[in-house]
Amino acid sequence: MIKKALLCTCALAAIGGPAAAQDVVRVFNWSDYIDEDILTSFTEDTGIEVIYDVYDSNEVLETRLLAGNSGYDVVVPTASFMARQIEAGVYQPLDRSQVPNAQYAWPEIDERVSRYDPDNTYSINYMWGTTGLGFVQELIDERMDDAPVNSWAIVFDPEIAARFADCGIYWLDAPSEVFPAALAYLGYDGNSTDPDELQAAADLMMAVRPYVRRFHSSEYVSALANGDACLAIGWSGDVLQARDRAAEAENGLTIDYRIPVEGTQMWSDQFAIPADAPDPAAARAFINYIMDPQVNAQAVNYINYASGNLGAQEYIDPEILADPAIYPDEATMDNLFIVDPYDPQTQRLVNRLWTRIKSGQ
Ligand code: N2P
């Protein structure tokens, strides 16, 4: 891949002049979060090469950013995590006047994110979505009639979860995702920092821990698609990508996603430029390209997440726009909550509980 990029640079140098051809943008984004054709067309259109690396959790991204000198020009933190990273001085302002396609940003999403990034100074939304339940219909049906696929009970009620232990229950390896879900199932605020409530959530998770096969990062997309997992706590678009892969493979597995009735968190993943980015101008060019309505729609149509781009909506597949699992309708919205970053003391407690849950002791 690197070799190919170098070859490509040489060709462009011959045609377009060396200045443009030497530009490189280093992007660090979530896995399964782009149509790679977009990266190719970006390079064709701008002459800027893309070095594209991926991560699977905010926890991993944050460690890299706080260490400094990540070497990246563009990163995509979730807004709740970004709030404390902004305070830590990790980012430089994102000047929207230098990103003309920022005019297509969706004001409602900007407004929602301003809770974490006041006045939208440092970021612009890429995609947003929910954390919910992915499942393989056939494998669930074989094990239980009318299984509650639309309730957190299917993963948190020991009697129900036990039925699916043998076909593979996967949980996201991220306390920031699973604690709010467990709290919501218990009827608490998913954003709670009350130590007793967090302990109750941990006790609940401990009770079903024996039935969890794996704490996953991105591998659940293929695991659901090929039936190695039957039930997963995961993200909306990832599960729907698994659905598309299974349909393409014609393997007889029907995969679907539900937002649990007890409620779940809605998150927003933001384009941001690290303070020490090697090439902020290349970063802005990249972000501007992805904010182009047609390019943005191409991304949405491929990854099945909702974007923060209003201009893109006329180009988005109408089925995606009408799917409440992707673009939640009013009734679904009522079941969604947003989370704040944990204060340091709560973060320590959550980390400690999570380590115990994962080890099962
Ligand atoms: C993409 C997952 C991104 C959603 N695979 C998590 N914020």
Description:
This protein has helices spanning 2-16, 18-21, 36-46, 58-67, 79-87, 107-113, 137-143, 153-156, 158-161, 175-185, 195-208, 220-226, 236-249, 280-290, 293-303, 318-321, 330-333, 344-359; strands at 24-30, 49-55, 74-75, 91-92, 123-136, 169-172, 214-216, 231-235, 255-258, 264-274, 306-307, 336-337. With 361 residues, the chain is α/β, with parallel strands linked by helices. It has two domains: 3-129 and 267-331, Periplasmic binding protein-like II (D-Maltodextrin-Binding Protein, domain 2, 3-Layer(aba) Sandwich); 130-265 and 337-359, D-Maltodextrin-Binding Protein, domain 2. The strands form two sheets. Strands 4, 5, 6, 7, 8, 9, 10, 11 and 12 form a nine-stranded mixed sheet that branches. It has a three-stranded parallel sheet with strand order 2-1-3. Strand 1 (24-30), helix 3 and strand 2 (49-55) form a beta-alpha-beta unit. The model is unreliable at 1-21 (pLDDT under 50). It binds pentane-1,5-diamine.
